[in-house]
Amino acid sequence: MTRSVWFSLKELERKNYHSISIDDFFINDTSDDYFKKLIAEITNKTKKNSHTINSIVDNMTMAQKYFKRAIIVVSIYAFSILLHCISKTCANFEGCLKKTIETINTITISGLNILLLYFISFTAIILSIIAMKKK
């Protein structure tokens, strides 16, 4: 998480940008090379910005990668704590598992609930098809 925050802050740092100003158009040259020099000036300013933009993109990419890793580590850690707590609270793990299965088996689902579930699923499918056609 620290590395993720570090790269996020580096991405937000103020950087130097090169911009095209009115002075770039006033080149003291009367020959036909005026447009060539003007194009060269504009191209050079654009190329100078590419380093700054690439460093921002690199920092953002690194922040995203480290954040994904942090999420995975936190998830694994939370799951291991859950397993540890379950093992401590249920000394008889098989008995605790049987009680959980029995509790789940006592749940009854009426026909109306099943019809409602089918209706919601069917509506979601139709809405997603309509959304895909609009794209």
List the SSEs and their pairings.
Layout: H1 2-11, H2 34-89, H3 93-105, H4 111-134
Helix pairs in contact: 1-2
Task: List the keywords.
135 residues, mainly alpha, 76% helix, elongated
Describe the fold and architecture.
- The protein has about 140 residues and is mainly alpha-helical.
- It has a domain at about 1-90.
- It has four helices and no strands.
- The longest helix is centred in the middle third of the chain and has 56 residues, at about 35-90.
Compose a concise summary of this entry.
It contains four helices and no strands.
DSSP helical segment count = 4
Rg, Cα atoms, Å:
31 Å
Backbone shape: elongated
Helix content bin:
over 70%
User: Which whole number gives the mean pLDDT?
Assistant: 81
Gap between N and C termini? 37 Å
SSE pattern: HHHH
Biggest β-sheet strands, sense, barrel:
none
